[in-house]
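User: Can you write out an input/output pair for a complex, sequences first and structure second?

Assistant: Here is one pair. Inputs:
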Amino acid sequence: MSRLTNRLPGLPPAVRRFFEWFWSVAGAVSVRTKILGIVLALVLVLGVGVTLQVRSTVRTALSHELHNRGVSITRDVAARSVDMLLVHDLYGVHRLLQDTLTNNEDVRYAFIISPQGEILAHTFGDGFPLELVAVNVVDSADRYHLQKVATEEGVIWDFAVPIFDGRAGVARVGLSEQAMQTTLVNITRQLLVTTVLVSLTGVVAAMFLTWLITRPVLDLVDVTRAVARGDLSHKAPHWADDEIGLLSDSFNAMVEDLEAARTESEAYNAELLRRNRELAVLNAVAQAASRQYDLDEMLDAALHRVLNLMNMQAGWILVLEGSEARPRMACSVGLPASVARDEEQSGFPGCKCGRVLQEKKPLVITPLEETCPAYGLCLADNLVVNGHATVPLISKSQVLGTLNVACNGSECVSDEDLQLLGAIGRQLGVAVENSRLWEEVRQKEAARGQLLEKIITAQEEERKRIARELHDETGQALASLMVRSRNVEREIKDSETRHHLQELREVLAVTLDRVRHLAFDLRPSVLDDIGLLAALRRYAQEYQERFDTTVEVQSVGLDGQRLTPEVETSVYRIVQEAMINAAKYAGCTHISVLLQVRARQLLVIVEDNGCGFDARQILREEAGQSKLGLYGMQERAELIGGDLDIETHPGEGTTIYLRVPLPQPEAHEAGVT
Amino acid sequence: MSPTITRVYLSITWMVMTLIWWTGCAATPVESMPYVDLSQRQPLPAAAESRVVPLRVAVAAVISPTGTAESYQPLLDYLSRKLNRPVELLQRRTYAEVNNLIERGEVDMAFVCTSAYVIGHRDFGMQLLVAPQVNGETVYYSWLIVPADSPAREMADLRGATFAFTDPWSTSGRMYPTALVKALGETPETFFGRTFFTYSHDDAIRAVASGLADGAAVDSLVYQYMVDRDPRLGEQTKVLQRSPPFGIPPAVTSPHLRPQVRASLQNILLEMANDPTGSDALHALGVDRFVLVEDTAYDSVRNLEAQIGRLVLR
């Protein structure tokens, strides 16, 4: 209603409030009630209006008629009584009045007054209501005079007509309104009864009208709800060629469009789902392939996922192995072991599917031949296998095996599924190829590791031997030379010779020192004799002297503990390399080395305060000393099963983390000094 | 249905009921009117005795009562003024009734028909007062009239017809035609098909003019007076036969009237023609003047009565 009142801005507030109240009531009810209310109000207003109008008109007409009749009767009485009055025929007058009374229903009374005011004749019988005489006075010049008189019998229209210009008296006749009122009441009653009947008819008609209007609307609502539920098969009935019919038609057109749009959307959806499934299967296969299981585990996982995602129950994968390309059952799902064995043994010649090897394309074998090991196989739900699809596992146009799925329908697998299986086959082919290559790499890597270990071991052994040789043989020889030269010096007096000898001895001393350094650098004997920590401390001391850099070596949980020789050697060499790098490239002034044994792991941290470097850049450079050094550190760490992290940025110093797993302490707790 | 809707429907019903109740009330619009209780009846009071005794004048029904009342009113008014006392007009349907009133003294003065005078004079001494003079004569005639289109040429042609008599005692209206029938050797009962009394001459003329009667005998003065006033009556009727002259209907007094009153009445009437007002009153009556006449002027009537026999008159 506010919308309506908003359109009528000139309304006074009271009227607006009334309209708002009215609409709050009328707007809240159903269409049925609205129509019923309108029809009822219309019929009632019309009925009551017509009743009032007719009543008023009839009343006017009846009054007019009563008036005319009263005048007519009274004048008639007056005219007919003149002669009788003049000749004093009072009985005749009396009879005239009686006749008038008898012959006119409405006439209540009649009487004649003489010019002297005497009542000459009247119709009251015995006695006369004398008050009546003075009620109505007519002038002798008038034709008549009407005076309505209230009586205990109702209103009486009293007519007075002068007789013979009043010379013979006045005729008075009283007409009762009773008949007129009765007629009015009857007419009103009939009209009201008619109104009630029309109202009832109106109610029935309104109910029919409401049914006519709301029924199709309610039907439409039902259909709308059905459509809202997603049921597009419902159609709104075409009720009639009216507005509602138009609405139904346009609604149906809309539903049809909706249905078409939905069908299209469903097609897209199905396509999307299919693609999604393909992607899911391919993804699953890729995932399975990416896990670094061994080949059979990988294939088994892939087969399970493929069958699961493609709603299939049985399948198997054969791979060709060896230079003769012998088929091997890599994995199977849903096949009894005997069937799997038969399939493996029969190989391809026993089945049409052998063609796959030549054609390198997916094949559907249905129905199965009796020679096929899967012939007569029962799946779950008592479904008999009547065919299978075979897909080659291809990599670099070489068939590495076959992927087989069993089926039981008339259409074994759809073309789409076959294509998908083909894609899976190619993917699995690559996976099989990768797996084989990986296996090869792994083997080669193992061989390389063993070789490296041997080389390093041989190197260390050689160093150890050379160092011992230098220390024990060369060092001893030089030391004995020193001793002998001193003895010679004491025996020689010649100062010049002595001077030469002194110079010689100094050269010897320097050489001895160098030999010892060389031996130490090659292989510090303290490492073998006392242990890693002592060797590092010793090296640190030497390092300080050599490079004028403070070195701090700390250990937690390592004191008095010997590690395996390989570990000690490797850790020593890694720390040595790190410190040499620090001295050579970082320009540092302080190096901190921390060794910590914790939870069967050795953690070594070498930290300097130098300029740092870009590790990635160093590794990208052409093979250089530094690059080789970093690789050497990593190689050594890997050989003992550890891993090495380098944290460095230009200008921020360098920290090297080395984590080495330690074996059980009992096994290697030897050589404690 | 929600309570709100019920309330709305109830209020609509209430409005309609109110409207219907109002229409019921509207049937008796409020109008100031006197109230009379018709059941409160009382016996009628006796007529108040007037202290002034009026002069009671009767006029025999020569013409119809209204005609009489209209034409005699100026004369009565004149008399009232001259006598300085009220004058009351009395009329009766027949001559006989008027004669009875005169005889009993309930009427002081009367204008009567010729035969009524003859009978009254004979029976109870009705006194002749004056007689009107019309067109210089104090006689009148009985004219036999028929409808204008009537083929009749004389009374004999009216055998079996419907005949209107005026008054049983009328000289011109009954005695003369009866005499004519007698002359044909018949009685009215045997001669005419049907007869009836109109009790006044003007009604008899109207009866013939309207074809109600095939013939009638009327006072020549009345006929002339009526035709003068309503020429159509003359066109619709024609005079078939005229009688010999009869003495004009006189004004008479009761034998009980005091002689002084009778004398002053006679004076006033005789002098009327000299008074302008009286002259107008005479003119209204179609009379020149009142004159004195002798009783012998009515002997011709007595002769006629003798011809047809007295019994018929009664």
